[in-house]
Predict the structure.
Amino acid sequence: MTFAELLPAGVKPEVAIIMMAALSAAVSLAAVWSALLHRDPATKRVRALAAQRDRLRAGLLTPRRRQGRTQSMNMMRQVVDSLKLLKTDQVEKTQVKLSRAGYRSKDALVGYLFCKFCLPFIFGGVAVLLVYGFDAFNLEPMQKVLAAVAIVVLGAYGPDLYIKNMTQKRQEQIRRALPDGLDLMVICAEAGLSLDATLSRVAEEMAVSAPELSDEVGLTSVELGFFQDRAKALQNMSNRTDLSAMRGMANTMIQAERYGTPLAHSLRVLSAESREERILKAEEKAARLPALLTVPMIVFILPPLFIVLLGPAALDIVDALTGLGY
């Protein structure tokens, strides 16, 4: 089949070639234009941070008003309120745990409590339906009971595992970005900025490279402007992150606020210690690499190597034995 036969009726090959060339030129021009177009990713992040500060300021200065929520969130809130899950003794600890994972809103707490209560029943119903109703896995009676129990336990501890995973990821990102943030704080402190202005500037500068650290620092700068006890704002930052480096930074700032000690020198020491800790963790991972690569080398590299080295000799032996009549 020729190129002309593939074209629609009435379209000549020359016209088709011209159209494809024009389309290719347009796509190339669009790609070059998109690559050369200047985008400022910090603008969106700064606007989000400013909106968050406005919400915090409105929540602290004015009475809270109920906002319009989706139907699903209203249903979750009704279930949680009817069961009085928000009045238990573990609510405060749950809020701290969610804040460490980056979820600070009241809706996040309601969603977590709803999932914590309902998922075991949902997973249990699905397990009974699959294991006993459809006999999906063709298991023995004891195996069916164990499978159903395991699915229910997974539903019960699933939200906790998810929050724990998100917390660990967020803490690791904050730990990696903390030395750079401390260096910026040292520069701002040496330039004569106050603690509030220092935290605000660091939050603005690190909005793109380290959004997690920027959120924590920006929220702390907002709380410093509203709380009468400024040490409480710094302690809240330490509790939200649950990192030794952040606790050291908070204690250093509290001492600087209370006793008037030079902030820049203390932050410089903390920056050096944090950077050294990050280097030690990288060296630890590099030292673990040979042990981690041992099993893949044995399983995936040595068998092909033996085949390449011993395969020709084995084939020659088989040919020689075949020629001798064996």
